[in-house]
Structure formats: structure tokens, C-alpha cells
Amino acid sequence: MTVTTPPMSLVEARARLTRWLAKHSIDLLRVSLGMVFLGFGALKFFPGASPAEDLVARTLDTLSLGIVSGRWAVLMTAVAECFIGLTLVSGRFLRAGLLVLAASLVGIMSPLVLFFGDMFPGTPTLEAQYVFKDIVLATGGLVVAAKALGARLVP
């Protein structure tokens, strides 16, 4: 005689999915954010490869009152973004990576204030769209930081 298990009900399936999402979704968010930071950061090591290169140089030049400018500004940003990406992907030194991310967000979002007229001469420029995507990265970083600091997602 074979024993068959009854089919899973929709309620049971939903409960399993909810538990799986609660267990894994923030880690998946962390890794995907890390891959984005790593990808965009790596581009900045190669002159002309990043569409944000000029914006990065101009922003850091303005924020540092001319102390950090040009290629050095872009390289510093590349190192910071790659560090953030590696910590998010690996989960190692995560708090340090999140601290660098928090500090970087000032620079990441500041073009919206510093160069608003240039970024929105009517419709948003490509640079404005580039900065806008960072709003999503920032809020994702907040979720990852909440978990790193002890918050739990409970189904």
C-alpha cells in the first residue's frame, strides 16, 4: 500500500512562500545591491567607461572645495563603491561597508542640490536619471542596514 500526501493547499503554499521570503529576501537584496555597486564602481577604474565620470569628478571637486578633483575623485569613488559592493556581496565587514555607503550617500545625492538646473534643464538628463536610480539603492541599503543592526523580518 502506498501512502500519498494530500496536495498542498493554497494557504499552506502561501505560508511556505512567506517564510522563505522572510528568511532570504533581505540577503538577496544585500547581494544584488552589492553587485550593482561593484559593477558601477569597477567601471570608474577605466577612463571613459562610466557615464557618471564627469558628474562624479565635478561633485567631489565641489564638495571638497577643490581638494579632490578630476581623475582622483573618480578613483576614490571607484574604490569606495567597490568596497561597498564587496562587503554587501560577501556579507563580511558589512557594518563597515554600510558606514561607507552612508557617507557616500551624501556625495551620491548631492548633485540633485548642487547642479539641479544642469540636471533638469526641462526633462531629466541622463545624469539626473543616474542619480535617481540611487534613491532605490539608498532605500535598499537602509533595509540591509536594519537587518545588520538586528532587525528581523517575521512572517
From TrEMBL:
<feature type="transmembrane region" description="Helical">
    <location>
        <begin position="69"/>
        <end position="89"/>
    </location>
</feature>
<keyword id="KW-1133">Transmembrane helix</keyword>
<dbReference type="GO" id="GO:0016020">
    <property type="term" value="C:membrane"/>
</dbReference>
<protein>
    <recommendedName>
        <fullName>DoxX family protein</fullName>
    </recommendedName>
</protein>
<dbReference type="InterPro" id="IPR032808">
    <property type="entry name" value="DoxX"/>
</dbReference>
<dbReference type="Pfam" id="PF07681">
    <property type="entry name" value="DoxX"/>
</dbReference>
<keyword id="KW-0472">Membrane</keyword>
<feature type="transmembrane region" description="Helical">
    <location>
        <begin position="96"/>
        <end position="115"/>
    </location>
</feature>
<feature type="transmembrane region" description="Helical">
    <location>
        <begin position="135"/>
        <end position="154"/>
    </location>
</feature>
<feature type="transmembrane region" description="Helical">
    <location>
        <begin position="28"/>
        <end position="49"/>
    </location>
</feature>
<keyword id="KW-0812">Transmembrane</keyword>
